[in-house]
Design brief:
alpha/beta, single chain, 4 strands
């Protein structure tokens, strides 16, 4: 578990993080406190301005989870408020792709 408290020490082994369905970027901004490289997968173009305001350093990937391809494996990822947007029969495939 990653501790997002401001005074918590950074975990040296964890260099990159990813927020899937990044939305407005709130949790993505929290990732930047702990990771050198942050990816944000967000298919909704209308959210990108808010996302980049919250975490301007994030590399935004403008596709769905199933179509996302990161340039490297990540050490930590957050996926929340997503599965209700995905048909039940696609959950396993989506999660395995993550």
């Amino acid at each position: 578990m990653v501790d997002f408290r401001p005074n918590h020490r950074r975990v040296a082994e964890q260099e990159s993080g990813c927020r899937l369905w990044a939305g407005t970027g709130h949790n993505t901004g929290l990732l930047k406190r702990r990771f050198d490289k942050v990816y944000a997968v967000e298919p909704n173009q209308r959210m990108h301005d808010k996302l980049l305001t919250a975490c301007p350093e994030a590399e935004v990937i403008s596709v769905t989870i199933a179509k996302s391809r990161l340039s490297e494996p990540v050490d930590f990822g957050i996926i929340s408020h997503v599965l209700y947007r995905i048909p039940d029969h696609e959950w396993v495939g989506q999660m395995l792709h993550c």
